[in-house]
Amino acid sequence: MKQVLFLLFFSIFGVTVSAKQVDTVEVLSPSMNTKVENIVILPADYESKTDLPVLYLLHGYGGNHKSWIQIKPGLPELATQYGIIIVCPDGKNSWYWDSPVNPKMKYETYVSKELVNYMDDRYKTRKDRSGRFVTGLSMGGHGGLWLGIRHQSVFGACGATSGGVDIRPFPGNWEMKDALGAYNENSERWDNHTVVKQLHLIKPELAIIIDCGTEDFFYEVNETLHREMLYRNIKHDYISRPGAHNGNYWSNSIEYQLLFFSNFFRRK
Q: What HEC string does the chain produce?
């Protein structure tokens, strides 16, 4: 039934894609004792390929595993163009942390370990960091950098588009207090769970791409992150262009990010 629904979705948007190319898979998370749904997008010529890179593509707050394929119906074509597997997990509203407050919210472990292991066991993937990338939008942009920086033995490249790269200016928003506790009572914990405070962990071999629209409410925190990375002499690609916090911007930006990750893979 799920495959039929996806075929219907793509026919509406005028994209021809087989059920084998886009599928929904359930992956057991032992750390959370639950099954998590994920969209897996394969290149059209997957059967003839080996040793493929994988992009873990994270949704934003209020989204789910279907969000990216709805924002960018052309993702299967891009997967084929770049010879890359794209995986979109359902991260709930977790901010992709292992919550110190809620033991049932361990999406850092899920994406960086459990989902990666599942993909490497069942698909024709490059089974080292040179073939794994992680990025996302908004909350998922925070997740892309959070996971990429903290798991550099797993991911060779990471990114964010319209990312919530510093959560502290927004203490009452997006259910973050449910994962970290209230900011006024746990400010040190919030410091330790925001991307801009993880920069000391970055090693030179990690490839990073960040972009944000100038009309985005996350624009200033992205600008601050960029300046701090320049100060620390951390190599990264940073793109700032007109755009707001919406699907039009993300649909455009993901094409630049896929090119970045593809170039990284080819160099390796």
A: CHHHHHHHHHHHCCCCCCCCCEEEEEEEECCCCEEEEEEEECCCCHHHCCCECEEEEECCCCCCCCHHHHHCCCHHHHHHHHCCEEEEECCCCCCCCECCCCCCCEHHHHHHHHHHHHHHHHCCECCCHHHEEEEEECHHHHHHHHHHHHCCCCCCEEEEECCCCCCCCCCCCCCHHHHHCCHHHCHHHHHHCCHHHCHHHCCCCCEEEEEEECCCCCHHHHHHHHHHHHHCCCCCEEEEECCCCCHHHHHHHHHHHHHHHHHHHHHC
